Amino acid sequence: EADPGGSWEEDLSGGETEVSECFRMPPVDRETKDNLIRKYGGYISTLKHEFSKKKKKGKLPKEARQILFDWWNLHYNWPYPTEADKVALAESTGLDQRQINNWFINQRKRHWKPSESVQFNLMDSVCGPIVIND
């Protein structure tokens, strides 16, 4: 059957009638299409619903970021929250712990340089104290 508004071939070719073989498709069988929609329509709507529930990427809420920044500023010398800190931050911000963890990882990577005393303390804890004999 011809589509009165133009064929699918014309749509693909920009109005030209010559279309390569790889784009040729059989005409849509309306009955088959209706059967497929009846059979799988529920799955499609379920998938659409699941995708719509996913959180959109973007900035965290301003209030949550402020709470995290406040904690960060209080603990700048060692900005590694304990598990208890993370639970408390999650409760006070409404974020989940994965978001809390990611925020601190990114914040440290972008904005934190350990002081020399922290670096030496880390080295001492890993290697033992360094003794220099004169």
Structure commentary:
The structure is a single chain. The protein is mainly alpha-helical and 134 residues long. The chain has a domain at 62-113: Arc Repressor Mutant, subunit A (Orthogonal Bundle), CATH 1.10.10.60. It is built from six helices and no strands. The protein has helices at residues 8-13, 30-53, 62-74, 83-93, 97-111, 116-127. The protein is elongated and about 90 Å long. The N and C termini lie far apart (98 Å). Mean pLDDT is 80; it is low at 7-13.
Could you name the key traits of this structure?
134 residues; mainly alpha; 60% helix
Q: Judging by the overall fold, what is the CATH architecture of the domain at 62-113?
A: Orthogonal Bundle
The general outline is: elongated
Mean of pLDDT: 80
Calculate Rg over CA atoms. 30 Å
CATH T-level fold name of the domain at 62-113 = Arc Repressor Mutant, subunit A
Helix content: 55-70%
Q: Which regions are unreliable across 5 or more consecutive residues at pLDDT < 50?
A: 7-13
CATH superfamily of the domain at 62-113: Homeodomain-like
Task: Give the beta-strand count.
Answer: 0
Largest sheet: none
End-to-end CA span: 98 Å
Order of helices and strands: HHHHHH
* Number of helices, counting only DSSP H or I runs of 4 residues or more: 6
Strand-residue fraction? under 5%
